[in-house]
Amino acid sequence: MVIIEPFKEVGPLHCRSAGQLGWALALSVFAGLNLDAQNSIVVVANSGDSTASVYSPAQVFPGGDTTLKLLKVLPVGKTPNEVCISPAGKRAYVSNRGDISVTVLDLENLSVSSTISDPELKSPDGCIVSADGTKLYVTAAGGDSVFVFSTADNRKLSEIKVGHEPRRLLFSPDGSRLYVSNGEERYVSVVDVKAAKEIGRIKAGRDNRSMIITPDGKYLAIGNVSDDTVQFVKLGETESEFVVGVPRSPQRLVAIPSRQILFVIGRFDNVLSMLDVRPNKAYGRLQGSIPIGRSAWGMAASAAGDFLYIANTGDNTVSVFDLRLMRIGFTVPTGKAPLGLAVH
Which of 140, 236, 149 shows the shortest CA–CA distance to 184? Predict the structure, then answer.
């Protein structure tokens, strides 16, 4: 394993703040917003008031900056933490850490569809839906299991034992494996999806959490929150090939194939960092950081890969980061303490 370098502070890139853009201007023209032609949806879990905000990307002016138009605020369970959306975009699933439940949202009718609950689903956290849309996987961070539910009738299909405090989930490119980060272990569990059991472990850092597959399909990248690192593990291997130091508390990783950049939230430093994932000698190197909102947590890319949406927990906002201009455009209000965020 090779350690490239620890994080060193770099000068911020220039970006346009929400204050400079003017919230008053944005609100004054909301009635004339042009909604995204693809009917994209952004769902944000607001942990402080037990709600989920549903938005649609929109342009204030034709050809202008993209913002988010609030469609509806829906009630969910206590202390919602994470959210995932079905591949078809018809359902969103909000894990409620204050309950033993997952709230199912109907995104077509903007309503609460049902609630999934199980006595052993302690502190539900990360979730993901299978590619065919038939199964929902949810981590029980208060225990050591991943729960599998049928999306047709919310019935529990199985419970998969993994490490203690499972947090996030990610499918392998072929869908045959499920990676599970374990907050209180020094490993990521590898689950055989068909057999529904753990079949391997990948060495990881402290409080390993967010995971992505790099755009070249070569590595599993893992954010280690308490180590302030991102590690790169070749698919099929169990140890890191190299580890990169990043700003404090790397809560979320998002890769943008078109730009060959891996974006990393530095929650404690209030920055968005960029790692170079082009096929060159600088692979994985920290390129720089851009200031974002306070205590950012959730982040996801638009379907077209031209925007990032970032939930700023400390500001009660979501920012729209324009990947074409590499700056924050609009920042819009959410509920209290937004955490998880998902896009379809």
Answer: 140
What are the φ and ψ backbone dihedral angles of 193, each rounded to 5 degrees? -65, -45
Phi, psi torsion values for 19, nearest 5 degrees: -65, -40
* pLDDT at position 19: 41
What's the rounded Cα separation, in Å, for the pair 170 and 183? 15
d(CA 142, CA 125): 9
* Prediction pTM value: 0.90
Q: Report the candidate in 144, 212, 220 with the shortest Cα–Cα distance to residue 184.
A: 144
pLDDT along the chain (344 residues), means of 10: 44 39 40 55 98 93 84 98 98 96 98 97 97 98 96 97 98 98 98 98 98 97 98 97 97 96 98 95 93 98 94 98 94 98 98
Give the max Cα distance, the chain: 55
246 neighbors 275 (Cβ within 8 angstroms): yes
Classify 18 as helix, strand or coil.
helix
| pLDDT of res. 34 | 53
CA distance 286 to 6: 10
Give the C-alpha distances (Å, rounded to integers) separating 34 from 61, 307, 321: 7, 16, 18
Structural domains of the chain sorted by starting position, each given as residue range(s) with its CATH number in brackets: 1-34+209-344 (2.130.10.10), 76-203 (2.130.10.10)
